[in-house]
Amino acid sequence: MSSRKIKEFVGFAILRLATFLIFSALFIILYFISIRGIKVIDWQFLTQMPCEGMTAGGILPAILGTFYLTLCAICFALPLGVAAAIYLTEYARQGRLVRIIRIGINNLAGVPSIVFGLFGLGVFVKYFGFGISILSGGLTLGILILPTIIRASEEALLAVPKSFREASLALGTTKWQTIYRVVLPNAISGILTGSILGIGRAAGETAPILFTAVTFYSARLPNSIFSEVQALPYHIYALMTEGTHPESQVPIAYGTALVLLFLVLGVDLIAIIIRNRARRKKW
Amino acid sequence: MVIEVQNAKLKIQNRKEVKIDKDIKISIRNLNIWYANVQIIKNVNLDIEKNKVTAIIGPSGCGKSTLIKSINRMLDIIPEAKVNSTILLDGENIYNMDETLLRKRIGMVFQAPNPFPKSIFENVAYGLKIHKMFKNKEELYFKIKKALRQAALWDEVKDNLDKFALDLSGGQQQRLCIARCIAVEPEVILFDEPCSALDPIATAKIEELIENLKQSYTIIIVTHNMQQAARISDYTAFLYLGELVEFGPTERIFTTPQNKITEQYLTGKFG
After folding, report:
1. Rounded to an integer, what distance in angstroms lies between the CA atom of residue B120 and that of residue B163?
2. pTM of the prediction?
């Protein structure tokens, strides 16, 4: 073999190894959590309240809590993010102000999530007086995923060909009619895909809800958006750090982790399905 | 060469006084257009006669497309473009009109076919719905059928109006765009190099269609294809480096061009 060929072989081997390592990392996480978590998971685990000081019973309140928090975050962040993206791409004059706003939004994505938690505590819990509640936590998570939603929406809107807009405007439509009837319907799958990926991330976050929404244990299921809740990520944290019976708490923590993992992967799977559906019908 | 251009311009400006009494649909006065400080169109004066086909020809980059986009104010959506002109549609300044109503009266067909990613039916229905031009389903269907007939597409698609518009051939797509345009009953149709993306057979169909359309509409067509201008137009305007070099009846322009640059262009000395 010539030295050029050897170099090529070594180069490809390194690239192949890197890819394999990444894939195996995902596989190892799944395997590790699964074998430890699967033992405790059964129908009761998913549908019952915890009992005996968190050492037995199910995680229903945590599943529901994560669901409510995420739902609240979507209801807040999706309309707001899509509206901002429409304004930035379609209406705003592309100048310095828009550039500064974009930089601001990108920086928002880089803020550590615990900082969002403190912000939520100061603003939603205290200043607005929402208390430790689904509302406070949902709004905090919503702000966390706003940059993701705005960026995904902007990309989806910009991907709609200019010729569609021209065709519509040349027929005598207003700008809003063009956006509403031509641009949005063609961008919606991209917007949803990006947003769902953001939502998956929100469901797994602990820090933003730490001071704003969660409690270690609640005897009742939440009955309004002002209730405090249990949530899956925080439940894992609490089981591992609090309580006096680690031998019965640790398996429950792994079970909870497995449930959370499958929820997040499931959400991502939905995003992938939507994307593939939309791709088939592309212009 | 610059002097020649100026001479030609003078001739046209002298003539404009005489032409007023003809049946003028659109008159363009002192049209100047800048793109980010570069002047693209320089002091163009042009009268467009009703129910005739007026072709705008010239080498690429001479400002043909820019010129017709000023007529339905599509340049308004390009932030860098600045227009300074008086353009009269039936004697009324288009810059005093609501641009959506103006664009309903002056339709446009673009260079590349651009149907919406919807069904054939929905494509033609789009403008009708926007302008609320029907009272019931029967009337909507009737108007869509009429537009597709006029665009010479009806016979090819009548059995499957739900077909996805992007599955049509290029020529069919362009005729669908024409149907979509005439469905809203415009008075003028602007064609911006409508055949540049089409094969010769599809081109011939579109040309035949334009011939027929002029009975009901005033037509302005931009083309880089001189033969096409000669075949289908009644008047020809030759645009060079943003200036209107020569304008007159197509036959006269092609047989006895008065300006040397026009002659050189038409005989293929440059292009």
Report:
1. 6
2. 0.82
